[in-house]
Design goal:
513 residues, mainly beta, 11-stranded mixed beta sheet, 9-stranded parallel beta sheet, 1% helix
């Protein structure tokens, strides 16, 4: 008899969508320079840049996502000539770089955005005339960046509708020149909020705005004027942010802008949502969905199968669902690692579906199994992996499947955690013990024996479930997905969709002769 374990597909934070076809372009690899990689890219494509310093001035075409391997290792240097990165149209993402050495005075910016919708996130921006310049009507988001030691302003919005949130803006301006250096400058930036930023030690002004922008939850500290032309919100404050390491030496590479445990900006806003480590929200570049450890494949990864059993000595088919939650600045997922211990070790990968369509893949020969997709999954979408094989005749007890999702080019992994579809509370692993029934079925799909299961997947027998997961109803199954615990019996994510770092998917299967 073959029992198929069907997964519940769900994701916290982000809804599913069909994965759009996109080309993945690698520098070096497909091109020797960043400009060369961008020349190969069209709207919807992703350009991944490796560990190197590139002395270039580039324009990112509309709809292209440009990802570096981390500010410490992927460096775009303007060579003191003009703007480093120009945004060439809507839908651009720029993440994971050091962006430095835009040359000359105005207009020489680290990143320049004129009338385009773009997202700039997870970068270290320094030694430019101004860090990021946004001008004109646009749906632009500047978040989770460190902008430090630029000649004039750290971040600027002019006649714009941009959002500046969760950035760390420090030590901008030239102390030798009294020219109105500002941490965050907002001029006629309407109907948006500047929030959750840490703005400290800039030469003259902290946040300058003309009264059209709301401010909240900012720490603005140690300026001639912390707020100019706009008043502080009651949630704003002025306290030393207590960086792990900072000195006014004009070189942010020597600084560590993470927060000390005693920082007033740490765990400042009660969740949900939560920081990457599951704690309350920090202010600044490393809080919320920011990048305290550099670029990552995904924000979190949930995976699950329904609770059921395998039978010793019989073939088994397991469908494992992987649910990566991929934020716009995440690099994406192209590898799934599956650890199959004990009596599950004889299972092999027999198919992969992406958004319910067959996907191309390869499987490594080493343990644990690594499934590599033919293309990077750049947005949240369900991955189903089919596993089939024989269960040993002497199998007994329970085993736990381990799952990780990664990005091969980036060389990073996110540990998977078990989910049951409701995401209503924290859990580390799914720990249900399932008792196998006597095998009297003759078909492979519909159980008609007395098998302790009265769920809605074509079982018509009486049910007297005796599993050990604290279920006390007729079979602990009130859902309609084919068996398993009810959605209300186990919460499988931190409140608000926070992650559980280091957790594994727990698929605990009892094998009975």
């Amino acid at each position: 008899m073959r029992i198929t374990l069907r997964a519940i597909l769900a994701v916290a934070l982000f809804g599913w969508s069909a994965a759009a076809a996109a080309d993945d372009i690698y520098v070096p690899g497909d091109a020797a320079t960043v400009a060369g990689g961008l020349a190969l890219a069209g709207s919807g494509d992703r350009v991944y840049v490796g560990e190197s310093e590139f002395v270039e001035n580039v324009t990112v075409p509309a709809g292209v996502h440009l990802y570096g391997s981390g500010p410490e290792v992927s460096i775009l240097d303007g060579g003191d000539v003009g703007t480093v990165i120009d945004v060439g149209g809507d839908g651009v993402v720029i993440s994971g770089f050091s962006i430095r050495n835009a040359g000359g005075a105005y207009p020489a910016f680290g990143v320049s955005i004129y009338g385009a919708d773009a997202t700039v996130c997870g970068n270290l921006i320094y030694w430019n005339f101004r860090g990021v310049w946004v001008e004109g009507e646009s749906d632009t988001y500047v978040r989770w960046n460190v902008s430090a030691d630029n000649e004039d302003d750290g971040l600027d919005g002019v006649d714009a509708t941009a959002t500046f949130t969760a950035n760390t803006v420090v030590s901008n301006g030239n102390a030798a020149i009294d020219d109105g250096d500002i941490g965050i400058y907002l001029y006629t930036v309407e109907a948006r909020t500047v929030s959750m930023n840490v703005v400290a030690h800039n030469n003259e002004y902290g946040i300058w705005c003309d009264g059209l922008t709301d401010s909240e939850y900012n720490d603005v500290y140690n300026h001639v004027n912390n707020f100019t032309s706009c008043g502080a919100d009651p949630t704003d404050f002025s306290l030393d942010p207590l960086f792990v390491e900072w000195s006014d030496d004009n070189d942010p590479r020597n600084d560590d802008f993470h927060l000390q445990d005693a920082s007033p900006c740490k765990d400042h806003i009660p969740g949900p949502p939560y920081d990457f480590d599951g704690s309350d929200l920090d202010l600044g570049a490393f809080g919320g969905q920011g990048y305290p450890e550099g670029p990552r494949p995904a924000w979190q990864v949930d995976a699950e199968v329904d609770t059921t059993a395998v039978v010793a000595g019989d073939p088994a088919a397991i469908v494992l669902a992987i649910a990566p939650a991929i934020a716009v600045c995440d690099h994406g997922v192209d590898q799934i690692e599956i650890a199959l211990p004990g009596f599950l070790s004889g299972l092999d990968v027999t198919g992969v579906e992406l958004s319910d369509a067959p996907a191309s893949y390869t499987v490594g020969t080493a343990e644990p199994l690594v499934v590599t997709l033919a293309a990077v999954l750049g947005e949240s979408a369900p991955i189903e992996i089919s596993l089939e094989g024989e269960i040993p005749a002497d199998a007994s007890g329970s085993e736990t499947i381990g799952v990780r999702a990664g990005m091969e080019f980036l060389g990073k992994w996110i540990d998977g955690a078990a989910g049951d579809g409701d995401f209503s509370g924290p859990i580390d692993t799914l720990t249900l013990t399932i008792e196998a029934s006597a095998d009297t079925d003759t078909d492979t799909d519909a159980d008609t024996d007395a098998d302790t299961d009265s769920d809605t997947d074509a079982d018509s027998d009486a049910d007297s479930d005796t599993d050990t997961d604290a279920d006390s109803d007729s079979d602990a199954d009130s859902d309609s997905d084919g068996g398993g615990e009810s959605a209300s019996s186990c919460g499988c994510a931190a409140p608000g969709g926070g992650p559980r770092p280091g957790a594994l998917l727990g698929l605990l299967l009892d094998a009975a002769a």
